[in-house]
Specification:
75% of the residues lie in helices and 0% in strands. By secondary structure, the chain is mainly alpha-helical. The N and C termini lie far apart (75 Å). The relative contact order is 0.13. It is a multi-pass membrane protein. Keywords: Cell membrane, Cytoplasmic vesicle, Disulfide bond, G-protein coupled receptor, Glycoprotein, Membrane, Phosphoprotein, Receptor, Transducer, Transmembrane, Transmembrane helix. Belongs to the G-protein coupled receptor 1 family.
């Protein structure tokens, strides 16, 4: 029997449907813009491509969640359930390091302008991203082989392992190591970068920076801080508390809610894409303008059609 309340099931259906629709559109557009239309690639372009790719990996798992919440039956096998459950931890680990890389990138651009050439060295950025992907995969893979399985009693017709983070407590030692390396360290890196950047802004040490570049950097920093505080900090705090609790596989609303917040990051990345890339801005603006154009055409055609119909009526009356 599913211990999760009906309200959670309905909320999950609505939430994941929204995230899938918006996230797929946003991140597919971003990946196309950064990989195909950006002529001069920089380190931040590489990081943005990885963010979009990571988001898409997660988004492609959402239809299975939606189907499960809709039918209340898991039909895709235990192995696939374990993979999606492990991805709940895999996603924020890489996402936080990518945000940390972007923070360091802004730190170099603002505080160390002498080394601005390094921002064009995409090879180092690719190596850094590849290393994080490999390390995260290696530390997440043990979650695929958990001995205690909450779905065993239902003959694997449920997938409790993916619903929230409460079922990942078996490997606590590994989880705490992961909390340090994949949460605290990137978080401290970001905090250090932001504090130094703010210090330089206050003391006027960024006078050589162009106003537009300074404004853009500030927007990126504010966006990153907000995203980390809203999406990732609550999730990891809850995760840490759950690791310290006694064994309990009951539904935890706080765990479910913070998981929702973490998943929302796939949609909030659109703000980062919009600030970073002029090409992405142009693409979004062109879509908006095209929609407005279609609306104006429809209005004109409707008005023209109305006038014609009135003329026809008048001619018939005459």
């Amino acid at each position: 029997e599913n211990p999760h309340p009906e309200e959670y099931r309905i909320a999950s259906l609505v939430f994941y449907s929204f995230v899938f629709t918006v996230g797929l559109l946003v991140n597919a557009t971003a990946l196309w813009v950064f990989s195909c239309t950006t002529k001069k690639r920089t380190t931040i372009t590489v990081y943005m491509m990885n963010v979009a790719l990571l988001d898409l990996f997660f988004i492609f798992s959402l239809p299975f969640r939606i189907i499960y919440h809709g039918t209340e039956t898991w039909s895709f096998g235990d192995t696939f359930c374990r993979i999606i459950g492990a991805f709940t931890v895999f996603y924020p680990a890489i996402a936080l390091w990518l945000l940390a890389f972007i923070s360091v990138d802004r730190f170099m651009a603002i505080v160390q302008p002498k080394h601005v050439k390094e921002l064009k060295n995409t090879k180092k950025a690719v190596l850094a991203c590849t290393g994080i992907w490999i390390m995260t995969l290696s530390t997440t893979s043990p979650l695929l082989f958990l001995r205690s399985d909450p779905d065993q009693t239902s003959n694997f017709t449920t997938c409790m392992k993916m619903l929230d983070i409460i079922h990942l407590k078996e490997v606590n030692t590994l989880n705490f190591c992961r909390l340090i390396f994949f949460f605290l360290i990137p978080l401290f890196i970001m905090m250090g970068c932001y504090l130094v950047i703010i210090y330089n802004f206050i003391h006027g040490k960024t006078s050589k920076l162009k106003p537009k570049a300074k404004e853009r950097s500030i927007r990126i920093i504010v966006t990153l801080i907000a995203q980390v505080l809203i999406c990732f900090v609550p999730f990891h705090i809850c995760f840490a508390f759950l690791m310290l609790q006694d064994d309990n596989t009951a539904y935890n609303p706080w765990a479910a809610f913070t998981t929702f917040l973490m998943n929302l990051s796939t949609c909030l990345d659109v703000i980062l894409y919009y600030i970073v890339s002029k090409q992405f801005q142009a693409r979004v603006i062109s879509v908006i303008l095209y929609r407005n154009y279609l609306r104006s055409v429809r209005r004109k055609s409707f008005r023209t059609g109305s006038v014609r119909s009135l003329n026809n009526m008048n001619s018939e009356m005459i």
